[in-house]
Inverse folding.
């Protein structure tokens, strides 16, 4: 779960959404390619399939030496020299003046440190009258070392965390439940899996065109509604399999349901780390993802449940998606906002941009 956090911290606010668009496109392509691989290996042991997937992903072992640490995290934790080393390398690669970049870093660190000390800041230049910080201030600008308990110690961040746990659990349960139930659709199981995988490609296009226009929260709510309506409609259609065109309707609704839950689930990989402050970012998305794994572990039971109560899985998935649309408005919108650094930044931001805060201002 470090991947979403570090990807966000590498890019400015206006292009952060592109990291999720690219991530979803790669994920979907991998899912689509699984179908022919599994089809041609269907008569062999599952061990060969695992061996192929392991070899394909073996390159990730070298990531430790290939990727640099997040500059934002380094600066937030008073590792200024390490951050400068990475920025110098980036400046050389992009043919930018290194001295100018180092001056900017020194001014930013000086402003952050002296602002905490309560000293005056030049409002026009956003700098200090004194020189940038020197070695004597090293170690004094470090952020508190938050833990997982910090997520529940303050009311607002505890509410955000609780909502994220619920949403991740529902999305993971629904997403993997649909994947595992694809074999029960009225077509060949390999074809049904392939079609449901292809349903994710349009989501990447929707993310590219809509996410920076309507915002993360509205995008997530919209696709949860699409998933809920489609899954409930597909459940109703599957209850009347003898009607003309019933099979086509079932496939269409499940296709739309997969599209909807993919859009909402994919958005969470961008929305969640954008909400949490720097030293809580990986903890917040890690806890949310762990909750999502619980949903993934419950997903295989959808098949046996459908054998006893045919309409139950789709109805449960649809109703849970509707539930999520009711609680998502309580979260703040992250579009166009800089990533928060401290818990205090998050709380001020939440008070100014949460759904409840906006409602109170309108009432006044």
């Amino acid at each position: 779960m470090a991947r979403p956090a570090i990807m966000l911290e590498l890019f400015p606010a206006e292009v952060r959404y592109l990291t999720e668009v690219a991530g979803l496109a790669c994920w979907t392509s991998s899912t689509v390619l699984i179908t022919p691989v599994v089809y041609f290996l269907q008569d062999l042991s599952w061990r060969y399939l695992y061996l192929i997937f392991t070899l394909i992903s073996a390159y990730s072992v070298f990531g430790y030496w290939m990727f640099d640490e997040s500059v934002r995290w380094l600066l937030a934790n008073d590792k200024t020299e390490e951050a400068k080393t990475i920025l110098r390398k980036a400046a050389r690669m992009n043919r930018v003046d290194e001295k100018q970049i180092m001056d900017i870093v020194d001014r930013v660190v000086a402003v952050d440190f002296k602002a905490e000390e309560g000293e005056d800041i030049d409002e026009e230049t956003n700098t200090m009258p004194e020189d940038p910080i020197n070695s004597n201030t090293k170690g004094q600008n470090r952020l508190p070392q938050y833990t997982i308990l910090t997520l529940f110690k303050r009311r607002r961040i505890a509410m955000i965390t609780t909502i994220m746990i619920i949403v991740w659990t529902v999305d993971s349960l629904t997403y993997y439940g649909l994947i595992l139930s694809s074999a029960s659709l009225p077509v060949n199981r390999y074809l049904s899996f392939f079609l449901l995988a292809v349903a994710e490609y349009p989501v990447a296009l929707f993310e590219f065109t809509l996410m920076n226009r309507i915002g993360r929260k509205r995008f997530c709510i919209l696709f949860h509604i699409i998933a809920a309506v489609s899954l409930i409609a597909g459940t109703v259609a599957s209850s009347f399999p003898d009607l003309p065109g019933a099979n086509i309707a079932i496939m269409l609704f499940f296709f739309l349901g997969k599209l909807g839950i993919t859009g909402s689930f994919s958005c969470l990989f961008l929305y969640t780390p954008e909400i949490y402050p720097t030293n809580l970012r990986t903890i917040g998305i890690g806890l949310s993802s762990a909750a999502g794994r619980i949903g993934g572990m419950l997903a295989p039971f959808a098949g046996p449940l459908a054998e006893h109560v045919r309409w139950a899985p789709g109805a449960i998935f649809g109703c849970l998606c509707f539930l999520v649309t009711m609680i998502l408005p309580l979260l703040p919108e992250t579009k166009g906002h800089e990533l928060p650094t401290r818990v205090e930044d998050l709380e001020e931001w939440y008070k100014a941009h949460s759904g409840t805060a906006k409602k109170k201002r309108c009432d006044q």
Remarks:
- The CA atoms of residues 13 and 336 lie 6 Å apart.
- Residues 113-141, 359-364 have pLDDT under 50 and may be disordered.
- The radius of gyration is 24 Å.
